[in-house]
Specification:
alpha+beta, five-stranded mixed β-sheet
Length: 409
């Protein structure tokens, strides 16, 4: 069974019996496919890369007859490719005529009947594929369950085949990001009342995995364990990427599609804080601000109390050196927590503040300890070597008399 203009490979198995022929040898025969009923133009049949005409005998050879004696069966198989051209049903017969001059009896003892249904399958996905898939699953209790689920509805033409289709995960593709392999392939569940509807829940993203990456999951429909073409796919994004990357997403199959919101960003840093077991106890509050131009800015209220941190968009998009974005955010939280424990001076309006990355005369006293703490805990939060080198360059530059901006600008 396949979609029109899809290719489906089928192996036809055959066997030849020997009679009173103890001599060891290979067994020859001729395999033929013939039309039993239906319209032969529904499919194009290929064998060995060339178009096969029904009724044409194909020489076959069953190797390895050991000469063991009377009435011994030997097996072989021959691959055929069926290409659907238009919807409909046809029935073929396959048989092998053994060569009577080489130990066969010259007559086929079994005839294989092959029923081919050419159907059109459609998979409707919610959330839709153009919104770049769903989130990986996490044990973090604040994840919305609907963000990691995809609803798949099967329709077929002719319609009676839709409920026969069983959807399976074909593979979690190595492309993109071959360096990351999820611990499982996710879970598919068929609806108990409507057999045409399936729910996929994404694979787990373990909290111990410091470098998860977006993966493509490839699915196939099957009938009677026969794969149908074409397969279909969608992305399962990391928990962090689903919340923050600049692409539209939906909170569940029926939610409106939107770009990441302030709420999504705030959930992202809370997820990173929980995943990496961070304790930014020097900060009374943390929040995302689209207008913040730095990775982070730690402020204090009048009276030097209520230290709070603004996280800017760049904290969620990684350093200039790495694609491991959540790790950079984790390091930023460590960095800003150091600032939260430092003495504050200077006024802007009603707020006492310490501006990171801009007060050059304070970089040595203020920024170096924050970057040193990031570097000390780099392995804890999974910073790759290129980010470690970047932090070390900033530290060395400032200690040598330069500024943070000498590196970051």
């Amino acid at each position: 069974t396949s979609d029109p203009d899809c290719s489906q490979e089928v192996n036809i198995q055959h066997k030849i019996v020997t009679v009173n022929t103890p001599r060891a040898r290979d067994l020859p025969g001729k395999l033929t496919l013939t039309l039993k009923s239906g319209d032969a133009s529904l499919v194009e049949i290929k064998h060995g890369g060339s178009t096969y005409a029904l009724g044409t005998p194909i020489p076959v050879l069953e190797t390895g007859h050991s000469g063991c004696g009377v009435h011994t069966w030997h097996y072989g198989q021959e691959p055929f490719e069926f290409i659907g051209k238009q919807k409909g049903t046809l029935v073929l017969e396959a048989k092998v005529d053994p060569d009577p001059d080489d130990g066969g009896d010259g007559q086929p003892t079994q005839v294989l009947t092959i029923t081919i249904n050419v159907i059109k399958l459609t998979y409707t996905l919610l959330p839709e594929k153009r919104y770049l898939g769903i989130s990986a699953k996490t044990s973090w209790p604040s994840q919305e369950a609907t963000t990691r689920e995809k609803k798949i509805t099967v329709t077929s033409d002719p319609s009676q085949f839709a409920e026969q289709v069983v959807i399976k995960v074909k593979e979690v593709s190595s492309n993109p990001n071959p360096e990351y392999t999820p611990p499982d392939t996710g879970t598919l569940t068929q609806d108990s009342t409507d057999k045409k509807v399936w729910k996929y829940e994404a694979f787990m993203e373990n909290v111990s995995e410091k470098h998860p990456l977006t993966k493509k999951v490839i699915f196939t429909g099957t009938i009677d364990d026969q794969d149908l073409c074409p397969p279909f796919d969608f992305e399962v994004r990391t928990v962090f990427a689903w919340l923050t990357e600049q692409a539209r997403h939906q909170h569940g199959p029926n939610g409106p599609a939107h770009m990441p919101t302030e709420d999504d960003y705030n959930k992202a840093w809370q997820y990173v804080k929980a995943k990496y077991n961070l304790r930014p106890n020097n900060l009374a509050s943390i929040y995302f601000s689209r207008t913040q131009n730095n990775d982070g800015l730690t402020l204090a209220g009048r009276g030097l109390g209520n230290r709070f941190c603004e996280l800017g968009p760049s904290a969620f998009t990684g350093s200039r050196n790495s694609k491991y974005y959540e790790n950079w955010l984790a390091a930023t939280l460590i960095h800003e927590n150091v600032h939260g424990g430092q003495p504050f001076r200077g006024f802007i309006g009603s707020r006492i503040y310490r501006l990171t990355h801009t007060l050059h005369d304070n970089d040595l006293a203020v920024e170096v300890p924050a970057y040193q703490e990031e570097l000390r805990r780099a392995d804890e939060v999974g910073l790759p070597q290129e980010d470690k080198d970047y932090l070390q360059l900033i530290i060395s530059t400032v200690i040598g008399g330069g500024t943070v901006e000498d590196v970051t600008n």
